[in-house]
Amino acid sequence: SVMLLLNGPNLGILGQREPEIYGTETLADIEKAVAEEVSGAGWEVRSIQRESEGELVSAIHEHRLSSVGAIVNPGALMIAGWSLRDALAAYPQPWVEVHLSNVWAREQFRHESVIAPLAGGVVVGLGAFGYRLGARALLHLTGADK
Ligand code: DQA
């Protein structure tokens, strides 16, 4: 089975991007960590990072039926990513939202996520480790941990 690891704008430069906020681990490190968490269930990770909302929407459609679930860090698309939100609403598998930083402790404009009401759950503020938790949550939500 294939799970999606979706990351939105500005998340491809993790490790170099405001490391005091987002940590020093790279997206490659995160991909490895997530793969490690789900390998026991026989899952593979398809990691897709895009700077633009439309490309993320296309990726979600493309993997609609061929994936078992997704971890989604929408980046700033959390604020007004309505077409991402609609694509996820039409995505028939469980998915979990992850944010590296504690968005609640930051600027007001990060206090709401347009995709959060649809998520199976949300992990916030635990850095790269949050993706591991998201992966474990996904195994739980899909029953793959049984
Ligand atoms: C983020 C939080 C967002 O507000 C921000 O725009 C990002 C990263 C996080 O992982 O903490 O790009 O999603």
TrEMBL record:
Domain of life: Bacteria
Keywords recorded for this protein, A-Z: Amino-acid biosynthesis, Aromatic amino acid biosynthesis, Lyase
Positions bound to substrate: N73, D86, L100, S101, R110
Keyword Aminoacyl-tRNA synthetase in annotation: no
Gene Ontology MF term list: 3-dehydroquinate dehydratase activity
Transition state stabilizer, annotated site positions: R17
Enzyme class: lyase
Classification via Pfam families: DHquinase_II
Annotated EC: 4.2.1.10
Catalytic activity annotation: 3-dehydroquinate = 3-dehydroshikimate + H2O
Gene Ontology terms: biological process: amino acid biosynthetic process; aromatic amino acid family biosynthetic process; chorismate biosynthetic process; quinate catabolic process
Pathway of action: Metabolic intermediate biosynthesis; chorismate biosynthesis; chorismate from D-erythrose 4-phosphate and phosphoenolpyruvate: step 3/7
Residues at the active site: Y22, H99
PROSITE patterns on file: DEHYDROQUINASE_II
Main function: Catalyzes a trans-dehydration via an enolate intermediate.
NCBIfam families linked: PRK05395.1-2 (NF003805), PRK05395.1-4 (NF003807)
Family: Belongs to the type-II 3-dehydroquinase family.
Subunit (UniProt): Homododecamer.
Family matches, as HAMAP family: AroQ
Protein name stated in the entry: 3-dehydroquinate dehydratase
Organism: Kitasatospora kifunensis (Streptomyces kifunensis)
